Write the C-alpha cells for this entry.
Amino acid sequence: MVPPGTGGGTPGVPRRCSPAPIRCVDAPATAPTRRDRYDVRTMSDTTPDPRPQPSEGPPRDRLGRRPRDLRISVTDRCNFRCTYCMPAEVFGRDYAFLPRSQILTYEEIVRLAAIFVRLGVEKLRITGGEPTVRRDLPDLVRPLAAIEGVRDLTLTTNGSTLRTLAAPLAGAGLRRITVSLDSLDDALFRAMSGADMPVARVLDGIAAAREAGLAPVKINMVVKRGSNEASIVPMARWARDAGFILRFIEYMDVGTANGWRMDDVVPWAEIVALVDATFPLEALPPNYPGEVATRFRYRDGAGEIGVIASVTAPFCGACTRARLSAEGELFTCLFAARGTDLRAPLRAGADDAELEARIRAVWGARDDRYSDLRSAGTANLPRVEMFAIGG
Ligand code: SAM
C-alpha cells in the first residue's frame, strides 16, 4: 500500500513503510542527511561548469541527471491569491508584476522550448502565475504542440477560465490538464485561494476540460495543516466518483512570502492513511522514472491518487525538470535564489547553437538538491517565488 523508500516523519530522514495497515519508522541513521554540511553555493550557483560538456546528445548534470521536463511560466500574474503561494497581504494592488516588455513573447518561448527538446526534453508544462490570464494562450499551445519530439504537453491552471478556454486549448493541441483545487467547501476554497468566486466556477471549468477531451484531468490539492485536512477524504471521494486523478501536494517552503513552517506540513503517509481508511489503497509503480507523484490505486479498481511528498520524501535524485520563468530565466531548482538569463542573449541575436550551448552549460553545472538538504540551515535562504518560475 505504501511505496518503498521514504516518507513521513523527520525531514531528510528516510522512512521505511510497511504494507497496510500503514506503519512508517525512521530508517537507521545510515542515510546521508547532510543537514549539518549544507552548502549554500549548490542551491543557487549556476556558474557554467568549466569541465568540457558534450556538444551532442542530452547533457548530464553533476549528479548524472538529464533534462526531460520543461515548465514554462508564461506570466507571473494570477487572479487568485493562494495563502501558500501569493498571499494577498504581500502581493496586493501595489505589487509590481513584470511589465509586458520583460516577458518572453510566444515566439521566444517556442524557440527556447524547441532547443530544450533537442536537448532531450519530452514533456512541456505551461504554467505561471496563472497561465490562462495571458492573452491568446492557444497561440502558444499550437506551435509548442507542433515541436517534433514533444510527447506530452500539458497545462497547470486554477481552472477559473476553463469554461471559455478549454475547447480552444484542446483545439490548439493541448492534450491534458492539471487543475489546482484545495477544497470543495466554498468558504474554505475562498479562504485558501483568495479567489472572489465560488468553487462551483472551478468545478464547471473542470467539467469543460473533460467535455473538450482533455484527458486525463488531474487535480492538485495542496494540503496544509489546520486549513484543509478535513477536505482530504471529501476530495478523494469526489475525484474518485468523477474519474479524476487527485494529487495531494505537501505544503512546500517555496518562496519566502508564505510563512512556511514544518508544523503546517501534513506528511504524505498521513494523507494516504486517511484516504486508505475510507477507500483502501495499494501502491502503484511509477509511470516513468523520475515521476514526481507517488501513485496508489484504489483496491476496488475505482482509479488512482498520487502524493507529491517533496518535503517528507524528497526526490531530487530523480529530478529532470528545468524551469523557464516568464522573463526568460532558466532555473534548475524550484528552490533556487536566481536563474540564468536566456532573454538577453536571445534578444541580442544569439543563434540557436549559442543558446543551446548556454543551456547545456547551465545544466552541466547543476548540482542542486534543495529538498534533500532541507533543514534549519536552509530556512532563511533567499528563494524565488514559485509563481515567478512556474509550479
Ligand atoms: N496558477 C496555476 C495553478 O493554480 O495551478 C499554476 C501555477 S501554481 C504556482 C502551480 C501549483 O503549485 C499549484 O497546484 C499550486 O497549488 C502549487 N503550489 C503553489 N504554492 C505551493 C506551496 N507552497 N506548496 C505546495 N504547492 C504549491
Observations:
- The pocket of S-adenosylmethionine is lined by residues 78, 84-85, 127-128, 130, 156-158, 180, 220, 222, 249, 251-252, 254, 258, 386-387, 391 (CB under 6 Å).
- The longest helix spans residues 352-365.
- The chain is about 25% helix and 15% strand.
